[in-house]
Amino acid sequence: MGETWKNGLKAGLSTTWTLGKVIFPVTILVSILQQHTPVMGWIIQFIRPFMGVFGLSGEAAIPLVLGNMLNLYAGIAAILTLELPVKEVFILAVMLSFCHNLIIESTVAAKVGLRVSVILLVRISLAVISAIVIHLVWQGGEEPAQYGLLTAAQAADVASSWYMIVLLALQKAVLGVLQLACIVIPLMVIIQFMRDLGWLHTLSKWLSPLLECLE
């Protein structure tokens, strides 16, 4: 039992560290650029007309682009820096679950002999269709999503110097990683218990016929 806890915590901390190395710096960078420089404003104004189709604001383009060009965790980090309504966060989460890290994953797919054009078409189509459906079906979710102790609007009111700007960006980054750890570490402990008790092996046997049908 003690060894299971130890291995689970070790796996959870390792995973948190791996994800945190991406989320932490991206959160700081996007937070500073978004609130205190015109760079994000230029990007938002350029992409805004295209985002309305998905029920997203111009700001939502930032995590969408980062998630697709870099990886899913960069997209998550960007979401943490923005004051978006719950509906937009949910749409972004669904879109990025289907379509993320396109450059690297397409390269890997090409190396194993898969048709990149087909993979891109399927992933992008699923992301687009799911976003449009959610936008048309879900009429609520207009309340702002909360990620930490301060909302983006509150942070903008407080930040009056570069010291405060950097401090608030660091706060967002730290809170983002801590919230991630609160999810990842317990999850990895549970998975470790399932592995040691043999439940994962049993589950894989139950699911193997279904997986064979998908091959």
**Alpha-carbon Rg, integer:** 20 Å
Q: What is the assembly state of the chains in this entry?
A: single chain
Largest sheet: none
Number of beta strands = 0
Organism: Bacillus safensis
Protein name: Nucleoside transporter/FeoB GTPase Gate domain-containing protein
Keywords: Membrane, Transmembrane, Transmembrane helix
Pfam family, one: Gate
Notes on the protein architecture:
The protein is mainly α and 215 residues long. It has one domain (2-214). 79% of the residues lie in helices and 0% in strands. It has ten helices and no strands. The protein has helices at residues 2-36, 39-51, 61-69, 72-80, 86-98, 102-111, 116-137, 152-158, 162-196, 199-214. The longest helix is centred in the N-terminal third of the chain and has 35 residues, at 2-36. It is globular and about 55 Å long. The two termini are 37 Å apart.
List the helices and strands and how they pair.
Layout lengths: L1 H35 L2 H13 L9 H9 L2 H9 L5 H13 L3 H10 L4 H22 L14 H7 L3 H35 L2 H16 L1
Short characterization:
By secondary structure, the protein is mainly alpha-helical.
Index terms:
215 residues; mainly alpha; 10 helices; 0% strand
